[in-house]
Specification:
three-stranded antiparallel β-sheet, Arc Repressor Mutant, subunit A, Jelly Rolls
Length: 309
């Protein structure tokens, strides 16, 4: 019996600033090809998209959904998906990638929101395609967020946080009315990735991650490496290094202090892992790139421009 080709999965990590974990991708160049991609991908964060022109297909594992101009898409970080436009078109998009939990925390801790179970459904394992005809208030909120992020007027960060909170509440209401939001295929190690993302600075055994995913340690290591192309410990250390890069760029804290903040027990260990991941020492990286806010960690970043087909 012929074996089915293995699904190719890609992890896209977006470097979100620790003090304001949201980024915008927009502009005339943000057009999606009409050639179906053979790769499913997932993110380290929530994705909100606005289709500004044309239409196409949003594909998940075993499911395809049409989208049209004006639709708002919301895709949890652990949902495998890909997008292509209708034949002969190149749909134009604007995207927001964000960590809504940490974005709201300074002003409104997410755990203080009633009906937190509905909020978790919004943030894990679910997706939405919301038309402007049926959900005009959703599109208005997304356009307001995009405008604030582009114009960056006085107190825009406060405004964005308020808009995001209102947006999340709208999604919770949609979830409640529908009874169950759309669920899609997620990666089996999603609980481990979520834990690493929020607890990378702590010391915990790989066994903890395996238990979260309902696997033995050996099976967990195998599945994790097949999906992420690196083992769980290497992925944890990579996450710590990327967080350290963000802190070095945004603060004047010493490298020793930052290495401790991201979970390394010694400066020598931090230096060794940093050199392996970034190809240079922390001090040289900071001098060359860390002071430039437009510099991205391209080696492990998500798409900063649309993929070329």
């Amino acid at each position: 019996m012929a074996r089915h080709p293995k699904t190719v999965i890609e992890y896209r990590n977006y470097e979100l600033p620790a003090h304001f974990p949201i980024q915008i991708l927009t502009g005339e160049h943000w057009r999606i090809s009409d050639k179906p991609a053979g790769v499913l991908h997932f993110h380290n964060c929530l994705e909100i998209g606005l289709c500004e022109s044309d239409g196409g297909i949003l594909a998940f594992q075993g499911e395809e959904r049409a989208f049209h101009a004006g639709d708002v898409t919301v895709i949890a970080g652990d949902v495998l998906h890909t997008t292509w436009s209708d034949p002969g078109t190149a749909s134009k998009w604007s995207y927001l990638h964000l960590d809504p939990t940490e974005l709201e925390r300074p002003f409104f801790p997410p755990e203080a929101i009633p009906n937190t179970a509905l909020l978790q459904q919004v943030l894990q394992g679910h997706y939405y395609i919301l038309s402007p005809e049926e959900y005009p208030q959703v599109q208005a909120l997304v356009r307001a967020m995009l405008r604030e992020m582009e114009e960056k007027q006085m107190n825009y960060q406060v405004s964005v946080r308020g808009l995001i909170l209102t947006f999340l509440i709208e999604l919770m209401r949609i979830n409640a009315r529908q009874g169950s939001a759309n669920m899609a295929g997620t990666i089996p190690v999603a609980p481990a990735l979520e834990y690493i993302y929020h607890h990378y600075m702590e010391d915990f055994p790989i066994e903890t991650l395996a238990e979260m995913c309902g696997m033995s340690q050996s099976h967990f290591r195998k599945v994790f490496k097949e999906l992420m192309n690196v083992g769980p410990l290497e992925f944890l250390n990579r996450t710590r290094i990327l967080k350290a890069c963000s802190l070095m760029r945004m603060s004047d804290a010493s490298i020793l202090s930052i290495s401790s903040q991201v979970g390394f027990l010694s400066l020598s260990s931090f230096n060794r892992h940093f050199q392996a991941e970034m190809g240079t020492s922390p001090s040289r990286w900071r001098a060359a790139a860390g002071n430039n806010p437009k510099t991205s960690i391209l080696k492990y970043s998500g798409w900063l421009t649309p993929p070329k087909m």
